[in-house]
Amino acid sequence: MRDLRISVTDRCNFRCVYCMPRDVFGPGAQFLPRADLLTFEEIERLARIFVSCGVRKLRITGGEPLVRHDLERLVALLADIDGIEDIAMTTNGALLSRKAKLLAHAGLRRVTVSLDSLDDEVFRAINDVAVPVTRVLEGIEAAVAAGLGHAKINMVVKRGANDDHILAMAEYFRHTGHTLRFIEYMDVGSTNGWQLDDVVSAADIVQAINAQWPLEQLAANYPGEVANRYRYLDGAGEIGAIASVTQPFCRGCTRARLSPEGRLYTCLFGAHGHDLRSLLRRGANDSEITDRVRSIWTMRTDRYSEVRTAHTSGRAKVEMSRIGG
Ligand code: SAM
Description:
Blueprint: E1 3-7, H1 40-52, E2 57-61, H2 71-79, E3 86-91, H3 96-106, E4 110-114, H4 120-127, H5 133-145, E5 152-157, H6 166-173, E6 179-184, H7 202-212, E7 215-218, E8 228-232, E9 238-242, E10 255-258, E11 263-265, E12 274-275, H8 277-281, H9 286-298, H10 304-307, H11 320-323
Parallel strand pairs: 1-2, 1-10, 2-3, 3-4, 4-5, 5-6, 6-9
Antiparallel strand pairs: 7-8, 8-9, 10-11, 11-12
Helix pairs in contact: 1-2, 1-9, 2-3, 3-5
This protein binds S-adenosylmethionine.
């Protein structure tokens, strides 16, 4: 266990058609009541326990993490934990220009910003809340200006939705220092109507870019890195491809995931989380919670992505909008 992804809310200000479609997450949708969310202090306590179990990197996600009030206060608490080497956040970027400075000041190191197209019409059709591309690009600029360094840009590629925007995205982010990462559209949750035909394979994406701007594959930055890395031979920078559907990477997985209400998931595709909040709230001491975390992690058997079959792919899984990407 090296990475902990902390989802701080199940709410989002976007209604991306492949993640929180409006017909399921419309006005009547039920979200977690506030009292069910872990407090920042509870998250910090659990993070310290996870660090004692080997975690070195934290990623804050959601839902949309920036819709949780005062998120910078959580970042500051987490940044104070000895043993943490990296704190990053995955965001849709819509609120980033307002928050980047505060977050950087609190100790955030890096951001990953999701952006599925540079074409306003296509992007608005995906986010379904009419947020324009410029708002996200301004967020990325604000992150750089705040000292958060170059961003990773996540583009989920869904056939028929944005697959003809791959080259335009690649061209835009060449020479910027930002790393564009293409993500295969995944079968997560049970609300996005996923089908294999909608997946554009990472291999096809890389091939299309390579035909335009030749690429060379790079070694992983660290064991367990999920993105395959490539660099442009002309020196324009780097891209990543995350082949979670066509080349599952369960064996090297070092990621634990904490949901907003304090459930530990050992797999993005898991249907069941392990309740840690009730331990916290009934006064368990750190060593009891540590034992519980260790035993959940060492007993884990899920490698859902590897064993995916036509039979299992329709089964219920936790929503991506609950435990982040
Ligand atoms: N709201 C934040 C954001 O948009 O980055 C964080 C949470 S979001 C669930 C994390 C990432 O998961 C985003 O990059 C999103 O595009 C990606 N994602 C959501 N549903 C997906 C799916 N079905 N397949 C692949 N990636 C998905």
